[in-house]
Design goal:
By secondary structure, the chain is of the alpha/beta class. The two termini are 31 Å apart. 48% of the residues lie in helices and 11% in strands. It is elongated, with a radius of gyration of 20 Å.
């Protein structure tokens, strides 16, 4: 029963699931002469099909940048911050990577730290544990990635955590909430990450990755995962607000 509930929980966060539901509903309404519902379900089919294209996925993720307007002014430019919190962006589960490589999102976030190191003097990078274990955890892989690109003497790795709230909560006993920290994550993830940081009374300066639009209308597996991430993020924002985590 638990496996079924887990599968359903994952399924409802995927565009392909809702596309199949919309197609099924359209077929039922067509044969049972329900023109209004049929029109609506066809519209939903088009919507979910569009979300499987790179352009649709880009717009889905881009919609989350509207929430960044509320955190844009919280960067403490006059504070002497030399520590950065780098939130992990997952591991690659592609068969050829054997689950031991950083995802593209993790790499983009790490590259943002590299760019930041050229603008500011960084002395410490703080890495929540995230997925994986041992030398193949997100935190350890991010540490190795950064060590090959920038000269930072101190890395702080927190306990293993599995979501945005846990990533920041596990740091509370290790950080000084009276000093500012750079907070680095993806542009679409920052609204939830900054909300959690504020809730935990962490003083953070948001540093986000670049928002790039892909104009292709050819459906792809990558677009599916990007739209899934957008759905997950919007649902996560709503759930965190309900639970009082942001």
């Amino acid at each position: 029963m638990e496996n079924i509930l887990y599968f359903f929980k994952i399924a409802i966060q995927t565009p392909i699931f809702w596309l199949l539901i919309s197609i099924f509903l359209s077929i039922i309404c067509y044969f049972y002469f329900q023109p209004k519902v049929f029109t609506f379900s066809v519209f939903m089919c088009v919507f979910w099909l569009f979300s499987l294209t790179p352009l649709g996925a880009s717009l889905w993720l881009g919609s989350l940048t509207m929430m960044n307007e509320s955190v844009a002014g919280s960067c403490l430019k006059n504070e002497n911050s030399n520590s950065v919190i780098l939130l992990p962006g997952g591991l690659s589960w592609r068969p050829e990577d054997k689950g031991e490589k950083l995802s593209d999102w993790s790499i983009k976030r790490a590259n943002r730290v590299v760019e930041l190191s050229k603008e500011s003097v960084l002395e410490q990078v703080i890495l929540p544990g995230g997925l994986g274990s041992g030398s193949n955890s997100e935190a350890e892989l991010l540490k190795k990635y950064l060590q090959n690109r920038i000269d930072i003497k101190k890395y702080l790795i927190a306990e293993k955590s599995n979501n945005t709230f846990e990533n920041l909560e596990t740091l509370m006993s290790l950080l000084n909430n009276q000093r500012p920290y750079y907070l680095v994550t993806s542009y679409w993830h920052m609204p939830r990450a900054k909300g959690v940081a504020d809730k935990l009374s962490l003083i953070t300066c948001p540093i986000i990755t670049m928002n790039q639009i892909n104009w292709s209308l050819m459906p792809s597996l990558e677009a599916h995962w990007h739209s899934k991430a957008a759905m997950h993020e919007w649902l996560g924002l709503a759930w965190y607000r309900i639970k009082g985590k942001i």
